[in-house]
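Today's session is about reading a structure prediction critically. Students often jump straight to the picture, but the first step is always the sequence itself: look for stretches that repeat, for charged clusters, for runs of hydrophobic residues. Only then move on to the predicted structure, which in these notes is written as discrete structure tokens rather than atom positions. Here is the chain we will use throughout the hour.
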Amino acid sequence: MNFNDYQVKSRKHAFYPNQNTPDAFRYLIYGITGEAGELAELFKHALRDEGDKINAERRRLIIKELSDILWYLANICTELKIDFNDVPEVGLKKIQDRLKRGTLSGSGNER
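Below is the predicted structure for this chain, in token form.
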């Protein structure tokens, strides 16, 4: 499945306040942030409980959280009328450019 197919399919399950209005972003940003926190918790518990190893059950739970993050990301793109396929393409180009310029490490979005 490509990202645009996922974007269309995820919209069929998108029911949230103020959908298709400028106020929709608050719900989506809170949602993706919450899911990222749940993902971080899984890694924290792996560190605390499993010696920083990822067992099969933890991997299954990580995939579930990643899928929730993907859903929010797809719907943010839809609200902004962004072609979801553009997101990974832009990301890879950005990383390739940083690699070429030797700026992979450091901080800042425009390095």
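Discussion point for the tutorial: The CA atoms of residues 57 and 99 lie 35 Å apart.
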